[in-house]
Amino acid sequence: MASEVNLAQLRALVAVADAGGFGSAAVELGVSQSAVSHAVAALERTLGAPVLHRGTPARPTPLGERILPHARTAVASATAVRTIAARHSGGLAGTVRLAAPTTVCQGLLPGLLRDWRTEHPRLTVRVFEGEDDELAVWLEAGTVDAAVLVDADPPPPGAVPLGSDSMHALLRRDHPLAGEPAVDVADLEDDDFLLSEGGCERHIREAYRRAGVRFAPRHRIRDLNTLIGMVHAGVGVSVMPALAQPMLPPDCVLVPVRPAVHRTLALSGPAGRPWSPAVSGLLDALRAAPPGGGRG
Question: 158's torsion region: left (phi>0), alpha (psi -120 to 50) or beta?
């Protein structure tokens, strides 16, 4: 009798595709690398064709790409069954893969993770850091189970608002405007502007548009730490969310900009498929929390 596809094989395929290698997948699954290799090889024997290109990074073959969404669904469903059983016995359990932008990972998630660890000790939350526009894609593809979405319009049904975050000018402490209570965007025209090419660019452009000031960044930087380092070195100034505060060295400051520009944050599961019981339970607990409680 021909062998059948099993959950362990599909779990191995998903782990390797997400981690980009057999070794990293083995760490993720808590098994040996040889066990992952054997599971994928068994899947390929059953299907009669390769599902992964072995390389660095490992990546799905065309057949693997077609199978991967179904494998994710099967793995998620099995996880949901275990989570439902755990909730039936009392308390949240399982693993939630949570995606968030860099500044949210720095300024908001540490407090949430601390509270969740205390309140739900059997629940594991794994954080994936990404750009604003990547998060919804990861969420709908099943790469993550939940995400902190920025300015979702409208937010997916059931999403929990986490508040808003205002844009601030990033300046060295010796900058002439560093001691002001707020900075007009027009007053930054004489400085070389460093633009972060992450998800905040549209908010920065909005601030300049509302101020009627020409937006002409001198440098474009992808990594926020690099941008902060350049401001720290006196190369120029920038604008970023207030949640970036924990990333700053002592001689850099954030000053609110005028006109004020805000971004809204909401924690959500995917819009196009059912949420895992762990995600639903986590968001239910957030809704029940006192206003401002457990939100950094």
Answer: left
Indicate the DSSP class of residue 143: S
In this structure, the strands spanning 219-221 and 194-196 are parallel
DSSP annotation of 274: P
What six digits make up the tokens of 57? 């990074």
CB burial string 166-205: b at 16+ within 10 A, e below: ebbbbbbeebebbeeeebebebbeebbbbbbebbbbebbe
Q: What is the pLDDT of residues 125-172, one digit of tens each?
A: 999 998 888 888 888 888 899 999 988 877 788 899 998 899 999 999
Q: Are 206 and 261 in contact (CB under 8 A)?
A: yes
Given phi > 0 = left and psi -120 to 50 = alpha, else beta, which region is 142? left
The count of residues in the chain is: 296
The two structure tokens encoding residue 173: 């402490």
